[in-house]
């Protein structure tokens, strides 16, 4: 049985304990703990430079921590040998900050990169088929598979990046600032797509964002990075119980109020409150 046949049925696909990340003397994370629940969209927020991307990179094994442990699907990522990590690497998909599509490859070819890496035996015709399917799944027209990134709008590029992140049918999805640079409607559409795919495919999502609308609209819980720590994790109403100034300023400021109003308008327009459990 291959690793992809094993579906994680534990409660926490990601468990981080006592994680310290540092560059020389510069400590980014100081013994942080965080658990990500299966099936949730966990929003990860914090000021610029608080280490959101570094945290994601350490979970996917691209950043070696100074100390602490990170388990993904029960596999220790820090202490494991590289060939042990391969078994879990094909169970996550990543949309890096900025998208990072290969500009010399078409969208379809971009989606095929992880497929070829993990399943080199796949026939070209099947690779094309899967790439086209993943492309359409993210709301792009099938023709987009044969376009180069330079021929796409910002929103389309994000969807193409998502198609590549979904190439291996992951259980776990990492999205680093997926709506940055999109107009509000494009961002809201992308959020809706993320929520739909999460629910339909049974994904767990680690979603780094600055976008308050995204947090209110689709995140089940939010983790807040500040002072080199995870200073809070919970639903937004739970976080609001904290008197940490950053949390208060962020979730009680005018932009947060605008995000709540926008979510409520969206819910009224749909004639339902689909995610009422995420009420603020
Ligand atoms: N490879 C590296 N070498 C040295 N310092 C780094 C490296 N990568 C990140 N850093 C530093 O670590 C800190 C955290 O960076 P990170 O990219 O995780 O921030 P972030 O929270 O994602 O910020 P943003 O919201 O702007 O994306 C920053 O001060 C950054 O300069
Ligand atoms: Mg970042």
Short overview:
The chain has helices spanning 52-59, 82-89, 107-118, 124-137, 154-165, 184-201, 212-218, 236-239, 245-252, 254-270; strands spanning 14-23, 26-36, 41-46, 67-72, 75-76, 92-95, 172-176, 204-208, 221-226, 229-234. By secondary structure, it is of the alpha/beta class. The strands form two sheets. Strands 6-7-8-3-9-10 form a six-stranded mixed sheet, with helices on both faces.
- Residue runs with pLDDT of under 50 for 5 or more positions: 1-5, 276-280
Q: Helix and strand succession?
A: EEEHEEHEHHHEHEHEEHHH
Bound compounds, each kind once, are: adenosine-5'-triphosphate, magnesium ion
How is the largest sheet built, in terms of strand order? Answer: 6-7-8-3-9-10
The major sheet is characterized as:
6 strands, mixed
User: What spatial form do the alpha-carbon principal axes imply?
Assistant: globular
Helical content, roughly?
25-40%
- Tell me the quaternary state: single chain
Structural class: alpha/beta
- Summed up, the helix count is 10
Strand fraction equals 15-25%
Number of strands: 10
Distance between the termini: 44 Å
Q: What is the residue-mean pLDDT, rounded to a whole number? A: 90
| Rg calc | 19 Å
Characteristic terms for this protein:
single chain; 280 residues; alpha/beta; 4-stranded antiparallel beta sheet; 10 helices; 39% helix; globular; binds adenosine-5'-triphosphate; binds magnesium ion
